[in-house]
Fold each of these.
Amino acid sequence: MRQKHGIAMIALLAGCVAARAQQTSQVQLRIEPTNRTLTVSAQDQVTVDPDVAILHIGFQTQPTDAKSAYAAGSETSNAIVMALKQAGIPETAIRSEWQRLDSVYGKPHKFTLAQQWTVKVKPERAAEILDVAVTAGATDSGQIDWTVENEQALQDKALEGATARARAQAAVLAKGMDVKLGALVYVSNQTSSPVYPMFKAFAAPMAGLAASPQPLAIEPRKVTSTASVYAVYAIE
């Protein structure tokens, strides 16, 4: 009995040693000249002043019958567009977003007409043109998107900065590790679309609008674009 027990223990120990040897061989890493690499990642952010302001301008009529709501809406719509053009805004800079005639919930046979535009202007004219629209009848206006004409150029500048950072980091890291930086093996990048901070200021209905000597004080917001680079270099 003891002999059989001893044989069983020897077999068990042999199995454990074999399993451990197999496990060690599975996680062992082989360092070869062909896979000697150095990896870096870098990010850069570019922030600039906007050169375009996109105003969201609209109105909504008071509840009435469908025909009267449409007539009132048509009058207000034409008055706003005419005022914008008289203020020097070209027709190509005024774009309709939507317009609709809606029934009023809980009020049978009552309707309102609403319309919305985007108006593209220089940032320094944003407050002035918003005031022009409100004076002409806009009652739901105020969201402003601050952006740039050339978004691609802004993204390219951020990517250029991230690339330079990645290259510089690789050089510093190689020097610190006392190795020579070799050829670029792999690189990838990611850019974010410019971030447009928005401003909102909703106008009061014209019926209760008091005369204001000056437009709102509106300051343009910065526009930001971010890029990141991941690079793998060979080391010698």
Amino acid sequence: MAQTLLKVKGLKVAYGGIEAVKGVDLEVRAGELVTLIGSNGAGKTSTMKAITGSLPLVNGDIEYLGQSIRGKGAWDLVEQGLAMVPEGRGVFTRMTITENLLMGAYVRSDKAAIDEDLGRVFALFPRLKERRDQLAGTMSGGEQQMLAMGRALMSRPKVLLLDEPSMGLSPIMVDKIFEVVRDVYAQGVTILLVEQNASRALNIADRAYVMESGLLTMTGPAAQLLVDPRVRAAYLGE
């Protein structure tokens, strides 16, 4: 069995007195594309924020490469190969596309390899290459999503966390984003994908977790959950 890269154990997260995540266990193994699906407000984004250190844990632990990363800063995690594309993209609007991408490599000093990776990101996203000197704030939502993904890839992640990459995008752009997720995965990057579009996520993932009201209610091979009547009724509109 492949090495477990990321392990979440008994995770609890709260906002004020309200518990958003109520004791979650999940793991991501090397070479997998794992998806966490659920409706809006289920606790998916809170789980991602806790993993990357931007939300404190009430209880539980998070292990990355066999070591606890509880309380570690996001910058430390990027250096260790754990990168996140946040919900809402978070691009630097007053910087150019190229400058944004280079910010993704700020923990690296291998200039030749950084240039090589820039070329790789431009090959993955030709639209970014065409507009490399354009300010990020002048781009469409879909283009900003591509930029946020490209920026995360510039850190050479071992595990890429994607939080709602298709949110608010046109159907054509959603197709493009999922195509890129598949390409990145095919290149050997391990991915944890949080996504409201359950059908699209289950179609590309190896394994899946279903989250409801801060708890994981189902888990299994993605292909199996895709045909599960409970999942189809709750998330696929059947």
Amino acid sequence: MSTPHIHAKVGDFAKTVLMPGDPLRAKFIAETYLKDAKLVNTVRNVFAYTGTYQGKRVSVMASGMGMPSMGIYSWELYKEFGVETIIRVGTTGAYQKEIKLFDILIAQGASTDSNWSSQFPIKGATFSALGSYELIEKAVRDCQAKKLPYRVGNVLSSDVFYDADPNKWKAWADLGVLGVEMEAYALYSNAARLGKKALAIMTVSDSFHYHEILTPEQREKGLKQMLEVALAIAE
């Protein structure tokens, strides 16, 4: 049952998959949190592992960067490998001034500057991509129980990292968008099309208001609190 991008068998993946962007972060999560983790995919060095966390069977697999990559991997996991829930675990740049580094953003919905929604056969309309309410509720309860700083709301899934207009973000911020990332809209859209569950939970890695940014090592290993929320709500 291998696909062009995943060399695995049905049953190799758990019903819930955590998806960081970085293959090395997937490896770190598996080695740090999963018991008896088994490597189940290495195609294109996009590592995937399946093990258990506190008795629950959980998989972790990299998504790569951007919506095309997330769109491919999440579709194949949902469609071909029996995955029911994907939780994106990543980083985001904060648009709102009160949001600080290491705060957790829970993406209730995702706006986008991509033409991703143009594939949907609803002429003249734009699909609103939303996370699964059940997962949002669980994530909020877990953050509250652990007394973690978190925000729930809209994020921007952008195709552009280095924008030609350095001030465009301000228009999104004025609409209350919490931060920017590059994958949630595609993930939420695929989940909606296939009747599956999805959520994006992200740690703030930088701010558009302050000259602060996480180092690559912090991005890979310093996201402990957010990862433990995602693992706690894995089904």
